[in-house]
Amino acid sequence: MAHYKAPGLKRKCEQFRRYLLAEVGLLDRLTKVLVTLYEEPEKPNSALDFLKHRLGAAIPENPENELLRLELAGMKEKYEATVEANKTN
């Protein structure tokens, strides 16, 4: 199967790479975080969570989200109970 490549895709990728490296300083930030992870005496259970937290991607939880999660869990329990009740009938 032939793959279609949009015109100018290579140029756009190069521009995006330059943006990440130069303007955002992504390579420097990643290097610092990975060095910090390497130097940690006790390694975290999740390296990805460590990276997210250190890079600032860990967004504080909204209290409303926790309420919605609890509501969803309750609805799932009711759904499962209804499915089981319908199987027995």
From TrEMBL:
Gene Ontology cellular-component annotations: nucleus
Main location as per UniProt: nucleus
Molecular function terms, GO-annotated: transcription coactivator activity
Subcellular location: Nucleus
UniProt keyword terms in alphabetical order: Nucleus
InterPro entries given in the database record: AMY1 (IPR026060)
Family: Belongs to the AMY1 family.
Matches recorded under PANTHER family: ASSOCIATE OF C-MYC AMY-1, C-MYC-BINDING PROTEIN
Protein name stated in the entry: c-Myc-binding protein
Organism: Fukomys damarensis
